[in-house]
């Protein structure tokens, strides 16, 4: 009996001891877990604080840079609006006119009843470079064929630009000859006047400003049309300012839109980047206007073959054939059409020095068709950029066929002569 009671007491004490050990282990584990969680939270908070500090430091530096830039213009700078003003002007961003990679454009109304277009830069670069480019470029301009900047908003990442409103929107919706867009087709005379207006605007940017402005993104989407179809060059987000005496400009990376980018912009083997790069984009765009083809896609020449549209046009001009375009051209419009095509073919020459300046483009457009020489045949067989992996090989082959002496002296201006000597 006594041994049994002794075992009972001992086993009872062991059970209590085990329970105490388990309890202590749980408490210690809980304390360790709490300490770990506290340390983790503090570490995360410190990390977030560092990131916030870095963000505000970078934002502050960018703000200072933009503010200094705006201050530099003083009274010449456009009117500055707050973001709350932008919300009022656009009725809380209610009427969207369009959308792009930069953000969205909304219709708005100023306090004086002036109808405007407000471009809200939702995806503006963190350093504000695209914003600076746009304000810097347009603030220096005053021309009937350049869109007018009426004001801007800059509040950290909230950025907007206020432009005069263009009732007819952008040129691109009047180009394509397919489907319902065929009803928007403009007369050749109107297209010719638009081509002239854009050329005058570009000539002003290249020669008329105290500082030369290279646009680098001339395309139908960036040409706005007022109520009378007067063209206005817009969207200076990729523009570059340079001294008028600078023939060649330095650039890191390509700028522009596929189908309109000059060869030298994406491959320096073709030559230096200059205002002639805008001339190339202009030529590609005018060919689109005449042919009604987005980015000059291939034209079907038979049931089994296609040809690059500029090359196809060149062949027709070379044979003096009647232009067989996807539009009805009256006899009196034939000369204007041919003139635009010949000038455009000069503009899209592969080597920059073989392209005319915008002053010469205007001279040719306003002159007689008989006075125009047919340029060399376009050598790039596709509107798409050449693969950079094969660009050196491809460009060297093309340049072998291009480095010939053409009768182009009449197309050269002072900048061309100075760059070639």
TrEMBL record:
Highest rank taxon of the organism: Eukaryota
Family matches, as InterPro entries: Kinase-like_dom_sf (IPR011009), LRK10/LRL21-25-like (IPR045874), Prot_kinase_dom (IPR000719), Protein_kinase_ATP_BS (IPR017441), Ser/Thr_kinase_AS (IPR008271)
Residues the record lists as binding ATP: 119
GO cellular component entries: membrane
Cellular compartment(s): Membrane
Record keywords, A-Z: ATP-binding, Glycoprotein, Kinase, Membrane, Nucleotide-binding, Serine/threonine-protein kinase, Signal, Transferase, Transmembrane, Transmembrane helix
Domain Protein kinase: 91-373
Membrane topology of this protein: Single-pass type I membrane protein
Transmembrane region(s): 20-43
Coiled-coil ranges per UniProt: none
MF term (GO), any: ATP binding
Family matches, as PROSITE patterns: PROTEIN_KINASE_ATP, PROTEIN_KINASE_DOM, PROTEIN_KINASE_ST
Membership in a protein family: Belongs to the protein kinase superfamily.
Name this polypeptide is given: Protein kinase domain-containing protein
Lineage of the species this protein comes from: Eukaryota, Viridiplantae, Streptophyta, Embryophyta, Tracheophyta
């Amino acid at each position: 009996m006594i041994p049994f009671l002794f075992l009972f007491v001992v086993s009872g004490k062991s059970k209590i001891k085990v329970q105490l050990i388990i309890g202590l282990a749980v408490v210690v584990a809980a304390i360790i877990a709490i300490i770990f969680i506290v340390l983790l939270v503090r570490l995360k908070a410190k990390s977030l604080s560092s990131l916030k500090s870095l963000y505000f430091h970078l934002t502050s530096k960018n703000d200072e840079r933009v503010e200094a830039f705006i201050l530099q213009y003083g009274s010449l700078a456009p009117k500055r609006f707050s973001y709350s003003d932008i919300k009022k002007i656009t009725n809380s961003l209610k009427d969207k006119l369009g959308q792009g990679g930069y953000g969205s454009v909304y219709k708005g109304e100023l306090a004086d009843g002036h109808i405007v277009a407000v471009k809200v830069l939702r995806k503006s670069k963190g350093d504000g470079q695209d914003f600076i480019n746009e304000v810097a470029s347009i603030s220096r301009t005053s021309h009937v064929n350049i869109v007018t900047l009426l004001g801007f908003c800059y509040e950290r990442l909230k950025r907007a630009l206020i432009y005069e409103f263009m009732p007819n929107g952008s040129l691109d919706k009047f180009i394509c000859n397919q489907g319902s867009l065929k009803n928007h087709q403009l007369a050749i005379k109107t297209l010719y006047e638009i081509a002239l207006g854009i050329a005058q605007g570009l000539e002003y940017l290249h020669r008329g400003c105290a500082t030369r402005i290279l646009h680098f993104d001339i395309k139908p989407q960036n040409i706005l049309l007022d109520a009378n179809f007067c063209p206005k060059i817009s969207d200076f987000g990729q523009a570059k300012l340079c001294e008028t005496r600078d023939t060649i400009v330095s650039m890191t990376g390509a700028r522009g839109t596929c189908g309109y980018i000059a060869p030298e912009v994406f491959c320096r083997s073709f030559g230096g980047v200059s205002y002639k790069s805008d001339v190339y984009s202009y030529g590609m765009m005018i060919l689109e206007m005449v042919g009604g083809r987005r980015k000059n896609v291939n034209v079907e020449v038979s049931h089994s073959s296609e040809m690059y549209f500029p090359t196809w046009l060149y062949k027709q001009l070379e044979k003096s054939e009647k232009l067989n375009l996807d539009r009805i051209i009256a006899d009196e419009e034939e000369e204007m059409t041919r003139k635009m095509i010949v000038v455009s073919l000069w503009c899209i020459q592969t080597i920059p020095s073989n392209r005319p300046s915008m002053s010469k483009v205007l001279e040719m457009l306003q002159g007689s068709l008989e006075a125009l020489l047919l340029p060399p045949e376009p050598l790039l067989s596709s509107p798409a950029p050449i693969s950079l992996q094969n660009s050196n090989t491809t460009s060297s082959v093309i340049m072998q066929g291009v480095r010939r002496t053409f009768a182009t002296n009449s197309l050269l201006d002072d900048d061309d002569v100075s760059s070639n000597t």
